[in-house]
Amino acid sequence: MNRYMTKRITLFFNQSTLLLLGWLLALPLYAQKELPAVSLAQLTRPGGWQLVGSVSPTADGSAMRTQPGSTILTGSAEPLTLLTPTDDFRLRFDVLLSANADLVLTLPTGQAISFAGTQELARLTKAPGLWQTVDVWYKTGTANRPALLEKLALNGVTVRESQTLNNTKLGPLTIMTKTGSVAIRNVGYRVMSPRTVAQWSTPVSYTIVEGGYVTSRDEARSKKVLKQDTTTLLTYEVSYGQPRQYSILFSGKLNALQAGDYQFELNRGGVGGVWIDGKEVIPTDHRELGQPSFGTATLTAGPHTVEVYFSRSWFRPGLGLFVSQVGTRPQPLHSLSSLPEPDPVAVVSVKPTTKAELVRSFVQLPGEKTKRTHSLSVGSPEGLHYTVDLNQMALLQTWKGDFADVTEMWYERGEPQLLSPMGVPVRLPAQSPLMVLTNEATAWPDSLGENVLQYKGLTVDKQGMPTMEYTLAGAAITDAIRPEGNALMRRLTLKGSPDGTPYCRVAAGTTAEEVSKGVYAINDRNYFIRFDPKAKVKVRQSNGKQEVLLPIDMKNGAGSVQYSIVF
């Protein structure tokens, strides 16, 4: 048995809060992607709050410099009312805190949640001066039912779920800081009514064809027909009695009860797509259950032709289609048994204790169609973790909190063999950090072949932390990544005679804002890059990104570069 299975795996079985494979299946009411924006200018501002256009915290996060405008609210000790609910709602907002600030969120029932004083929130809170996101799902109480905090998430990580709120009063939802200052922006709010918005007006016809995992609807139409019939609701169960491998083409008339914009959500285990009145609304692609895709359509009141294509994957079948409008909860257009509750499976996780933990796995980044098959994830007892692609020596992601969910690697047959961070990851440039450029205008390569970069192995120190070794363009490289306070420090040492000037690309993103000498805020203050303020830095625009490059001075055949990622 693998030594990780005997020594390094913790199975969490908690009867009240089992984390399920595909847990999103149980939460379709949370699936709406976009929330209507709340105008900050229309909020009642108490004393100490002001409306500004931009905010630039100092490097230490102790103070905030502002510019005139109307897109951000800044304030402190006075509570700011974001909404006074009359029904169930979902709320999202971005927040940026000064140093030592404690954000307090007070729910409509009066419960106050301190972000600095709540352990699970404090562990996930980003460094001062960085934007982060808060999500709240709330169900109002009635005479017969208490209010419910359905979900509270920070930076995409759920920290509270299904919490009963005993107080029966209904007041405003407010935020404030006990200490320090706070800035908020991008406030979105949606009422979540259970109102029906559309329904099938005729039976749904279906055609089952031979062959599973067919990636094109047009190709499926050319396959041998196994069965044709009708059903009252969308369901993959019409395939029962057919061969294990199949594809289904559905078509029916959906009656929109009023004119307006509609959002559709498709959840399936396999290939799927949705067309409305002949127009592709959800593009055909492959997803596993719990990875829904979305599309919107503007419909007139009355019937519309809805076509759904489904070609199952071997891993787990299931098919569900939801429809909603602004102010409503997503409504299923499928039978409940077609999108079954996943089997309860305890999370298989890896937890670093006294030493670092190293796990090799597949990793698939958002937007990438293929897996990165040679990835190393490193978990530290300090709670700062990261993943490196050993083919490109790219530092792909870093996160804080708990380390790694390896359920998809080690449960049953271990498919799709993916490791998932147990905290919200900061995504980093997915290319090699080093390259020899012929001149400063040369574009950074997307990938390097084995003739340019060759991984040689790694050594492990007494704390279990690895130092990776590889060759690149005539130089031998050692690459050490270590936790350092609230940052991840990376030091690259080069020996040899590279053909030209080697550069280290320490950051690449949509924005690279210089906060102070040697400190840059990347991707709209998603994280900071910090390096020696005396270093010669090159900031350039290339391939639609702003890049921060550091040239490496090779003296007597040796050179080095060091930088830190603060988040």
From TrEMBL:
This is PA14 domain-containing protein. It comes from the Bacteria.
